[in-house]
Amino acid sequence: MTEMSEEMDLEEELIGAFGRVVHQDHPNPGRTNCPAGAALRDLALQPEKFGSTATLAHIRRCAPCLGELKRLRAKMLNNRT
């Protein structure tokens, strides 16, 4: 295994662990204070240009928003290939 693939495996493992923790500790079934869908789409499309720290802070503590962002991001990446 190359160093690059080991780093990618570690990154995927960390991202997966973060997702599990958010889903366990912050389920937010009522979607309380969730940002509009447009904000999540903007973040998925152009994460480097996204500037709302409040939205980012919310996503770190909201399983539904994190899940939706991951789905949108995967969709965007699949459409590019």
Report on the structure:
With 81 residues, this protein is an all-alpha fold. The protein has one domain (3-80). It contains 4 helices and no strands. The chain has helices at residues 3-25, 37-45, 53-59, 63-80. It is globular and about 45 Å long.
Keywords:
mainly alpha, single chain, 4 helices, 81 residues
Describe how the helices and strands are arranged:
Layout: H1 3-25, H2 37-45, H3 53-59, H4 63-80
Helix pairs in contact: 1-4, 2-4
Q: Give the overall form.
A: globular
Number of domains: 1
Q: List the secondary-structure elements in sequence, H or E.
A: HHHH
Q: Whole-Å distance between the termini?
A: 25 Å
For the biggest sheet, the summary is: none
- Total of DSSP H or I helical runs spanning 4+ residues: 4
Chain-averaged pLDDT: 92
Number of strands: 0
> Which class do the helix and strand fractions yield?
mainly alpha
Kindly provide the radius of gyration, computed on alpha-carbon positions and rounded to a whole number of angstroms.
14 Å
Determine the fraction of residues in helical runs and give it as a percent range.
over 70%
Strand content: under 5%
- Low-pLDDT segments, ≥5 res: none
